[in-house]
Amino acid sequence: MAYTDAKLLIGGEWRRGDGPGEDIINPATGETLARCGHASPAELDMALAAAEQGFRVWSAKTPVQRQQVMEKAARALEAKIDEAAVNLTKEMGKPVGEAKIELGFAVDLIRWYGEEGKRAYGRLVPSRNPAARQMVTSEPVGPVAAFTAWNFPSTNVIRKIAGAIGAGCSIVIKPSEETPATAVAIAEAFQEAGLPEGVLNVVFGVPDEVSRHLLASPVCKKVSFTGSIPVGKHLQKLAADTLKRCTMELGGHAPVIVFDDADVEKALDAVVGFKFRNAGQVCISPTRFYVQEKSYSRFVEGFTERAEKVKVGNGLDDGVFMGPLIAERRIAVMEQFVNDAKDHGAVVKTGGARMANAGSFWAPTVLADVPDEAMIMREEPFGPLAPITTFKGVDDVLQRANSLPFGLASYVFTSSGKTGKTMSEQLEAGMVGVNNVAVSTVETPFGGVNESGYGSEGGIEGLEAYQRTKFVTEIAL
Questions:
Q1: Would you say residue 290 has pLDDT above 80?
Q2: CB under 8 Å to 48, separation ≥6 — which residues?
Q3: Whole domain around residue 361: which residue ranges?
Q4: pLDDT confidence of 264, banded at 50, 70, 90?
Q5: Set 36, 220, 246, 283: catalytic member
Q6: C-alpha distances in angstroms, 264 versus 292, 299, 436?
Q7: 283 flagged as catalytic
Q8: Distance between CA atoms of 200 and 223, rounded to whole angstroms?
Q9: What pLDDT digit, counting tens, does each position of 67-89 carry?
Q10: Given 275, 382, 396, 398, which is the most exposed site by the fewest CB atoms within 10 A?
């Protein structure tokens, strides 16, 4: 599967796009891979019309019929994971082994939503009138508009496609123009599976222009977005004009809280690899490390030793654990975070600078003695930076962990069941991992609170996000 120009999928037909388009850059080498076609306003209208027609066809299918198509799509994608993973690595940078795992997650998600769609149960409500029957049913909400970020070219896209299609909706999705090939591979799998025309439409373009156009239309009844908080707020305002319901999966700034009674080595084994996975470009990445005073020195030393062993390079090379940042623009952001931390008295234990590679590589970085006033403790770095500081007790660390407006994920390490329970209940987060970091699975809800967004993807909650409730009362004549 060679990396080729990314096309649009509208009404079951592939199109080059009448818009200007843009280059797709390999962040590990700086080379141009291909062109990503852009949709013109007329093509966006075509996609909306196709989704409207596709919804009529798809929503009329039985859940079993929908599941059969989704199972075929899962098999089609599964058959080309190896080739698709290489393209994912080329466009995004993560190691190819990690790309295969991500695509495998997509296959599992398609299957899970196909099956879960068969369990969109309603209920009978006992009536006060003995002659009446009261029924509550779930039905697909309608055509969906979805927008995704670049950091997980497969996961971000499939969560929206599988959830919508599994519920009986059609969808117009705009994946990131920086990582389009993976979304195209997913769409091809659904095409091969016999998905009716117009049920899945894929468009690319200037993000604000596409979102304004799609959200101004009354065709789409639902918006799902994965990306930054400022963009999420912007899209929510646009959606308000036509009162579209929204799912917002926005940024985080996940605290990691390590108590003195925790097994420090096991905590390090869990969080260090997770911190540098995808070069830290993960919304649930651990990004603020609070370590209780007696364990602090040991934790910092252990973290530094492990970080120095992380092999960084082109994700297509053997043994590479961490690839580049998505683009050159992110290098300046990392520099700003590190310099600000040093200005506030933090100590760089390892890393702290870009690497002498052709692409946009940044060294795995550990910062010790980072005060709460430093920018990196207040804003999401979205990179391979690990700031570490100390805390005294439960009340102290809870106040500091909950002091920001974000609430996506949090992680706690302790051998005390009481402490784990207290932290899981009182941390302001949509997902909490106690003595582990596995907060993202196919069958569980994924989503945040406060300014990290609302609504869930994954689990039954992810299916319900694409459904609406109808109440029917009936009296037999």
A1: yes
A2: 143, 172, 214, 217, 219, 220
A3: 254-441
A4: very high
A5: 283
A6: 11, 7, 12
A7: yes
A8: 15
A9: 999 999 999 999 999 999 999 99
A10: 396
